[in-house]
Write a structure and sequence with these properties.
Strand content: under 5%
Distance between the termini: 26 Å
Number of strands: 0
Number of helices: 14
Shape: globular
Structural class: mainly alpha
Order of helices and strands: HHHHHHHHHHHHHH
Helix content: over 70%
Length: 405
Amino acid sequence: MFANLSKSVRQYMLVTFNYWNFTVTDGALRMLVVLYFHDLGYSTLEIASLFLFYEFFGVVTNLVGGWLGARLGLNKTMNLGLAMQIAALAMLAVPAAWLTIPWVMLAQAMSGIAKDLNKMSAKSSIKTLVPDDQQGALYKWVAILTGSKNALKGVGFFVGGLLLSLVGFKAAVLLMAGVLTLVLIGSLLGLESDMGKAKVKPKFSQIFSKSESINILSAARMFLFGARDVWFVIALPIYLGSTFGWPHLWVGGFLALWVIAYGFVQGLAPKITGKAQGRVPDGGAALFWAGLLALITAGIAYAVQIGWQPQLVIVAGLMIFGTVFAVNSSLHSYLIVSYAKGDGVSLDVGFYYMANAMGRLIGTVLSGWVFQLAGLSACLWVSFAFLAITTLISIKLPKLEQATN
């Protein structure tokens, strides 16, 4: 049956399979590191510092990785990402006494490079597989890839908490490294060698986007993801365990459920935003959904601040946040692939995900620092401020001519 599918569909399925497996290990590793090092007595700011290089090198990787993808081909950058994640996992499978902050930061740096090489390659490859005149189909394929990826990242959070409870930290990272090794072998054998390679080799100076629409969207994306990670990455899992007394499995399970639901909504985003009526989103849709998310976040922050039903507000409120955030993220993911140039698409996508990584870097650092100083409600107010900025930036996003598939 697989052999009867078209070449583009087979390549899309292989790219998605690679991305899915990588994403599970990425989510699991994040949960393992947060919970394991909290158990060892690390403060929230120290835990945040473990992810500092992970996010910083994500910024660098998206810039350089987009250029490499355009010059060498997306198959090579995707396979390089898989290999580096295997190496990062192996670095953490050492005796506990070796797991110093510098060593873990180095392993996380390698994992950050790997993650963004893999993501940039997957997102860029879709542009090469869908004709430019089929914007509706492009939106659908991007939404499916993005939504499924985030659902599986949620599965990864659960897997991380479960493995830590069942087999411990070292065995967990070795198991994940073994699975990814098998995935890498299949990828080396199956991916087309010329996928995403630009017809004209881009110069290194072209890594910075010259497109106004991409620059505006990238700025909005930076603050959007900073708004999520400022409460989600460090503050929330520590808060659930220390304030509510939730065990690791509950913490991992809740964050998994949140991200799975978030990914599911991302996959449905084309229907939510009107594709069924023959519409694809433009800057006006991004503006509306960013503004709505800002209002929701303000309500959650106020309720947490006054201590009104904290467990109900955090569990239900953040599920509502996740639903609306998912639509915002899916809209952005479609718009960047739509705005990007067809030849050397990874340059534009890489620049955009550089901004995404910068937002995560800012959010991660603030998540540990603000939570340590002022608690979860302060993290949520910072999130609201970032979303207000996202909304203001989105005013300048261009309106696109409506297209159908």
